[in-house]
Specification:
This protein is mainly α and about 250 residues long. It has one domain: MetI-like fold. Helices cover about 85% and strands about 0% of the residues. The chain contains 9 helices and no strands. It is elongated, with a radius of gyration of 23 Å. The N and C termini lie far apart (about 55 Å). About 30% of the residues are buried.
Amino acid sequence: MVSGLVLAGVLAYVVWRFGAAGQLTAAKWEPFAYTVIQTTLLKGMWATLKVAVVASVIALAIGITFALLRLAPTRAVSLPSTVVLEVFRGVPVLLLIFATFLLFGNQIGSFWSVVIGLALYNGMVIAEIMRAGILAVPRGQREAAMSLGLRGGQTMRLVLMPQAIRAMMPTLIAQVVVLLKDSALGYMVTYQDLLYQVRLVGRDYNNLLPTFIVGAALFIVINMLVAAFARWLESRMQRKTAARTGSAKADR
């Protein structure tokens, strides 16, 4: 109750400050009723989703690959993979985007510059998440798979990896949300995402603060949709696992 009262007081103060600064007048919010403004913001929203989806798929592929390379029994494979992972994970994502754009921007454009920068950084983070998930699977699972005659690759693909993905799903989704928000850095290399369009509308109509509020609300809606999809996917995976377990018990 105390926290709720404090939050309500903070919100009331913010609204009062907006009103005192003239940010709640109809003239500041009227442009959002224009079709051209709505189209511009939706265009930016689609651009943000597009770069986030493509970067997430590539980052997941990079993450799985480097997680397996780091777990390789041969040190000649695991050591270079660890060095590469630590380098890209230690470089700020904005620098990766800038470097990609400066080196290859003329050939690949701003879209792929943002995608590559986001995928490299988040892929290395996902690799560590996946490696931790695989190592967290009980050792008996690997030993049981090997006793049934499965090879190392089959054990990883059929036994360890599915369990690791299910266990790490909340963390993976959280990293995807981070990637989605980091995609806003694309405006630094002239990628016309949601933040780029928000700045454009706010500058042209002299209502920068209301436009940023609308842009923040759109980002929140996108994150809520991602979280809802994550909950659906997690529940679906749990139902499939429960069904397989029940079928296995019935066969016994």
